[in-house]
Amino acid sequence: MSLETEGNAAVITDGIGTFLMSENRRLQLGGRIGSKIGRWGSVNASYFVLYERVGGSYRIIGEELFPVASISEVYNHHFGVFASLTPLANLGVTVGYGGLLTRLLDEFWDRATGVRQETEQPVVMRNAFMLNAQYTDIIPRLTLRTDHNFTFWTDKDMRSLAINIPGWLDFGPMAVVPGLQRAEVSHFILWNGIGASYQLTDMLGLDLYVRNLHRRTHSEGLGGEIFTLTRNEFFIEPKLFIDFGLALGNLGATVRFEFGLSITNTTIAASEDLNFEGRNLFAPIGGSNRRHLGTRDSQFNIQVPIGVTMQF
Question: How many domains does the structure of the chain reveal?
Answer without folding.
Answer: 1
